[in-house]
Amino acid sequence: MTTGPATTGLATTTVPATTAEPVPARRWITARVRILLWLLLVTAVAFAAAAMTTRSILLRDVDNRVSRLLAQETGEFANLETRGKDPETGLPFTDPERLLVVFLERQYADPDEELIGLIGRPDGDPVRRVQPREIDVPRPLHADREARRRIFDSPDSTGTLHRASGEIRWAKVAIARSGGEPEAAFVVAFHPGREQARANEVFRILLAISGVALVMTTGIGWVVAGRILNPVRLVRTAAAQLTEQDLTQRIPVRGRDDVAALAETFNAMLDRLERAFAAQREFVDDAGHELRTPITIVRGHLELMGDDPAEREETVRLVTDELDRMSRIVEDLLLLAKAERPDFVTPEPVQLGELTADVFVKARTLGERRWELAEVADGEVHLDPQRITQAMVQLAQNAVQHTAPGQSVRIGSRLDGSRIELYVADSGPGVQPQDAELIFERFRRGTARRGARGSGAGLGLSIVRAIAEGHRGQVELRDTEGGGATFVLVLEEERI
Fold first, then answer.
1. DSSP-derived 3-state class of residue 187
2. Average pLDDT over residues 244-260
3. What is the rounded distance in angstroms from the CA atom of residue 200 to the CA atom of residue 58?
4. pLDDT tens, 86-111?
5. pLDDT given at position 243
6. ∠ at Cα 42 (36, 46), nearest 5°?
7. What is the DSSP letter of 13?
8. Quick one: pLDDT at residue 268?
């Protein structure tokens, strides 16, 4: 059978060196860059939508104004055709050409507008009569023979003519003799290219302004994102610096926003980790400190044990006693380690008088002392009866160890408003003032009681203090009238 290497004394627990996990390669798109990219995307979409909407509104306004102008000009001509009279004869117009001449002489077109009269000819090419004004466009309608013919031949009264040289919006009023085919037409032509170009220019200006705004947004967003993410970087830096040996790093908390709440939560987590690691180290140190001696005693006796039956029996008795003491130490250490857990104390409604009486009955079996139930408080309180009983019995055991048979030990409870006090008072040697705090530490005893009876490991009062703190209270040491020590559990619990 293969055995491991033997060890002398306490088996030393070797904590393996923490192997750092491989840190994944950082992605080149950091959170700051992602925030900035999303901000720029949303801003760019908003600016583009605003610019395109503005352009669409301007073009719609141009279209509406052209439609109103065409309707106005054709309406005026139709009114003259039906109601007007020839100024030379004073009679209604009978000649389409004369009607066109009179109307065109009275009109003044807009800069991008053409007023044209068309008279049909047998060869299909309408003769034009133009309102006497030149227009500054690449190819006006009166100079475009093909465009004039298409408009004259069109059965529609309005439309849009798309040409390589520019778009034309037009409207016409056909003139026909009574019962005959149209032989002339009045045409209003508008060239919207100039006004559409103005709308497009405004669109380009808006795009340029948006580009400048995006550049400014980039700079501002970069700075703001950096300030917002700075606590997150501090969290990452602090987490990277944390080791099992150093858990003291904390993040400065500034402000009251969500990021500040994150820093506070992270700091609280570090506090819990530090307490957990401290408790773990304390448990290991305490166990190693207290178990080393009994293990050495057991090992020494077993190595020196001979064949004599009496000697073997005595060795077994000593070894059993040491193993029992080791078991008690381990149980006490596990109890102290459990005190860090939230479920260490489970409060419930309890009658304080009954609890005090039960503790007194159990404590009387610990030794031949003059036990006294000094006072009993009456009321229902909220606490953990098992833990409180454990603490009070431990205090009673402590009193037994430091008193002689026949000496008095008093147990009692009292209520003072919301303050609950349960106490054990003995008539022993008492506790020196310099030891008042020392005795509640693990494996420590007061100098006045060090030679007293008992073989405890010095964990009893530590357990009592842990139970009191679990109830959000404390354990106090007070002087006993006539000599001795009084240990009081002070619990700040509301009565029910």
1. strand
2. 71
3. 9
4. 888 888 888 888 888 889 888 888 88
5. 65
6. 140
7. P
8. 84
Its pTM stands at: 0.49
CB 496 within 8 A of CB 349: yes
Residue 148 CA to residue 139 CA, distance in Å, equals: 12
* Burial of residue 35, with CB atoms counted within 10 A of its CB: 0-12 exposed, 13-18 middle, 19 or more buried: middle
The pLDDT assigned to 457 comes to 54
DSSP string computed for 286-314 = HHHHHHHHHHHHHHHHHHH--S-HHHHHH
CATH class of the domain at 348-492: alpha beta
Q: Looking at domain 258-338, which of 2.40.50.1020, 1.10.287.130, 3.90.220.20, 3.30.565.10 is its CATH number? A: 1.10.287.130
Q: 9-22: buried (b, 16+ CB within 10 Å) or exposed (e) per residue?
A: ebeeeeeeeeeeee
Nearest residue to 379 (alpha-carbon basis) of 326, 419, 325: 419
In the chain, CATH 1.10.287.130 sits at 258-338
Going across the sheet that includes 158-161, the strands are 127-130, 113-119, 182-190, 168-176, 158-161
Three-state DSSP at 432 gives: coil
- pLDDT recorded at residue 211: 92
**Span of 143-147, 312-316, 327-331 with lowest mean pLDDT:** 327-331
Domain limits, CATH 3.30.565.10, in the chain: 348-492
